[in-house]
Amino acid sequence: MVTVTETAAVELKNVIKSFEERENKSDLALRVFVQGQCGCGAVHYGLGIDDQTREGDTVISDYGFRILVDSDSVALVQEAQIDYIDEDMRKGFTVKNPNVAGCACGGH
Q: Vertex 31, ends 28 and 35: CA angle to 5°?
């Protein structure tokens, strides 16, 4: 299923904690979903913070937080890895999947 690098896990815990404090909620989770596919077949992933598990969700409890994946996205996130990049000109979460080719048509 979905894996998370150690660097991403640390950052995600901080993001989730910040959302919980700001929204005065607890037990928030990371939602991983497919936003769409290009004509070339590349998958575009989305990440969000969610406060509820929906019917059909796959729930992964690890890293000190939960990851939710909807039933439509579960097949397309197999072996995906969430990482956190902190470079000079680039900072943020990335999702890489060895089973899915990168966008070749420029439609990202």
A: 150
Q: Does domain 3-96 have CATH number 1.10.760.10?
A: no
108 residues of the chain, pLDDT tens digit each: 899 999 999 999 999 999 999 999 999 999 999 987 666 667 889 999 999 999 999 999 888 899 999 999 998 888 999 999 999 888 999 998 887 766 666 554
42 and 101 Cβ atoms separated by less than 8 Å: yes
pTM for the whole structure = 0.85
- Domain coordinates of the chain in residue numbers? 3-96
44 pairs with which residues across the strands? 36
